[in-house]
Specification:
Strand content: 15-25%
CATH class: Alpha Beta
Radius of gyration: 19 Å
Distance between the termini: 24 Å
Largest sheet: 5 strands, mixed
Strand order of the largest sheet: 2-4-5-7-6
Number of domains: 1
CATH superfamily: Histidine kinase-like ATPase, C-terminal domain
Structural class: alpha+beta
Number of strands: 7
Order of helices and strands: HHEHEEHEEHHEE
Amino acid sequence: MTIVALAPMDLAALLCSRVCHDVISPVGAIVNGLEVLEDEKDPEMRAVAIDLIKKSAASASARLQFCRLAFGAAGSVGASVDTGDAESVLRGLIANERTTVVWNPARQFAPKNKVKLLLNLGLIALSAIPRGGVVTVDLTGQDETLALRVEAKGPNARFAHGVADLVAGQPESGAVDAHTIQPFFAGLVARDCGMEIAIVSEAETVTLEARPVVAVAA
């Protein structure tokens, strides 16, 4: 099956839609909180509104920081990125009482697009445990030999329908929209890095591994 190719304008538009989708909820909550502050005189209700604004602003900031590194052009072309920054934005994105991040790799500088891929794999893994659980990140090798592994464990852990096909660039419907652009984009980044992604789903556990494609001798 042929890999689907998106026009640059379509890819940019779909990624922008995805980012907007991620931040619209906390931004809307901030607006609601400000409206309460304008009209409410009761001190307790005002305190609740202020708390809502603080939490929503923190959530919006965390999501934007994650999107900047996972989808954007942080740093110059071909630059290396501190994996400590990737760990920070991933932890910020899923800071809640239901999900725990286990980040095993030592801090290092890694190729920017491989860090971008790692975060996108983390996002796919996170979506597979909507009820919470544990996300574990591992890196092996360095630079050209760098391999990525993200595992998610949680109740009824499973990938959404069609995720593997989207990552492979072969969506079942033959089309990509704002709801499916993220795993499709992860596959694009992997292929740009010369990597292939293996996706495994077992009872209570899902795993994504990205490894360099091994050239076959003629």
